[in-house]
Design goal:
Helices cover 55% and strands 11% of the residues. By secondary structure, it is α/β, with parallel strands linked by helices. It has a five-stranded parallel β-sheet with strand order 2-1-3-4-5. The longest helix has 22 residues. Bound molecules: cobalamin (B12).
Length: 213
């Protein structure tokens, strides 16, 4: 059998956006594990893309084409992960913080949370604290998930938590954070309820937040 994971990884690294759908489609038909397609194929590719960018072997346009290629592939996997669970486990609000437009990780977390039975409201990227608060007041979710991929946007997470406190919304809202530059130490420092390094952590955290003792 063709090594689909290696081929998918290569397609994302080199931005082969015309080939990705065919490859992912065929991998799905041949029952390649969906999480392996995401983790060992696409996410692994993005790590390589990040390294190539750091070494100035590629630049923003190439990084963008890789991201676009990954998104096209993910679109095929998404419907298959959705709706395994029927009864809502709770409502999660997700966004990438102000100043940051990276959304692949956030979108993956959303896909997995939905697959695990949560209702997720996606507030998008580069989100103003004011808009976030406005939505939190209206929707009253149980969980807020914040994503940041830039060291320069990490402080926005702290700001969100501070404003939630000021507005009296913090007590009833669990906050989880994630994204490459953040970790559990930072989460503790800013007063978040949890840090997740990947989608499984995100689902586990969300489950722990809504589980009744
Ligand atoms: C693709 C990409 C882009 C694309 C983004 C496209 C998009 N729609 O997302 C584009 C080209 C637009 C881009 C732009 C820039 N980028 Co960029 N980008 C990347 C790259 C290569 C991959 C990111 C990615 O998608 N990874 C795959 C996903 C699946 O991983 P993830 O996001 O980490 O998410 C996982 C976990 O972190 C976790 N998670 C994520 N969020 C959350 C949230 C919660 C609640 C939980 C629990 C878990 C969780 O779960 C996810 C699944 O496992 C990274 C390198 C890297 N390896 O991270 C650089 C990187 C993040 N970018 C970088 C930079 C510098 C930039 C630019 C400033 C470049 C420039 N000069 O313009 C701009 C900034 C634009 C902006 N204002 O945001 C740097 C950041 C350096 C730093 N320390 O701050 C990196 C690390 C590259 C590098 N090695 O230098 N980028």
């Amino acid at each position: 059998m063709k090594d689909y994971l290696a081929a998918i990884k290569e397609a994302v690294i080199f931005g082969k956006h015309k080939e990705i759908e065919d490859l992912v489609g065929r991998a799905i038909e041949e029952n390649v594990d969906l999480e392996a397609i995401i983790n060992n194929g696409m996410i692994a590719a993005m790590d390589v893309v990040g390294e190539m960018f750091t070494e100035s072997r590629i630049f923003v346009p190439e990084m963008l084409v890789s991201a676009m290629t990954m998104k096209k592939g993910l679109n095929l996997v998404k419907p298959l992960l959705k709706g395994k669970e029927r009864r809502s486990k709770g409502t999660v609000m997700m966004c990438t913080v102000r100043g940051d437009i990276h959304d692949i990780g956030k979108n993956l977390v959303i896909m997995m949370l939905e697959g695990a039975g949560f209702d997720v409201i996606d507030l998008g990227v580069d989100l103003d604290v004011e808009k976030l608060i406005d939505q939190a007041e209206r929707v009253r979710p149980q969980i807020l998930g914040l994503s940041a991929l830039l060291t320069t946007t990490m402080p926005e997470m702290k700001k969100v938590i501070e404003v939630l406190k000021e507005k009296g919304l913090r007590a009833k809202l669990k906050v989880m954070i994630g994204g490459a530059p953040v970790d559990s130490v930072f989460a503790k420092e800013i007063g978040a309820d949890g840090y997740g390094k990947d989608t499984s952590d995100a689902v586990q955290l969300a489950r722990s937040f809504v589980s009744k003792p």
